[in-house]
Amino acid sequence: MEDTGGATAYGASLAGGGFDFYKFIRQPQTIVRILSWIFALVVFACITTEGYVNPIHSPEAKCIFNQNDSACHYAIGIGVIAFLACVAFLVLDAYVPFMSNAQERKYAVMADLGFSGAWSFLWFVCFCLLASQWAKTHDVSGLPEDAARATVAFSFFSIATWGILTYFALVRFRRGVNDSTLPTYTEPPQDHHTAYPPTYAPTSYNPTTYTPTTYSSYPSSVPDMQPQPSFTPSPQPPADGDYRPPSY
Predict the structure, then answer these.
(1) Which residue has the higher pLDDT, 209 or 74?
(2) Predicted model pTM
(3) Residue 162: exposed, middle, or buried by beta-carbon count in 10 A (0-12, 13-18, 19+)?
(4) Three-state secondary structure call for residue 13
(5) From start to end residue, where is composition biased (Low complexity) (predicted)?
(6) Which end of the chain is more exposed for a tag (fewer CB within 10 A), N or C?
(7) Which residues contact 60 (CB under 8 A, 6 or more apart)?
(8) Orientation angle between helical segments 145-175 and 28-50, nearest 10 degrees
């Protein structure tokens, strides 16, 4: 498994870093997966190349494991699928650090966990089947005994490697998102000596000097300077019998 000192999500570092091939190839999970790939190759290669022989009294090729063709077919099927799955999960392991979504990483780890657990059990069934059928094979003359023993042995080794892969996937699934290493925001302690909490303390405000425009008020108390016409009393007409000469 990948051991990182920073923040991790499901056993892989957070997205954004580059891919280090040498670091990836030295991971225990990668090494065990490559071993599982080799063991699966040996199992189905031994059976497909030397697992069928022609009995003396039959022209049809039979499986070397007690002439049980089902045993050979089962081992070939399990081996081929395991071989292809190892390649697929190797690519997925290299791609997981580039996944920015934690939910996608969770699905990838769950797929690895489910498949590895299932194939650990299927390899155990394969080992038991091949071992029992080889033990029942009494006439081994003319049979490739080395190929048969290698098939049984590497079936047993595959149980161990796929079991280890199941354990690694389970650890990554239980780890999940390592929240303890993620950067989190902690609110500063409140200062009881200030009038405001530290989060809502008002910032210093320096207003700019604004000089309002002053307007002279209209002088309502000043009298009207426009000259007014002087008042001249109108002359009164003389009374009857009273004559007054005009003044010059």
Answers:
(1) 74
(2) 0.65
(3) buried
(4) strand
(5) 195-229
(6) C
(7) 54
(8) 150
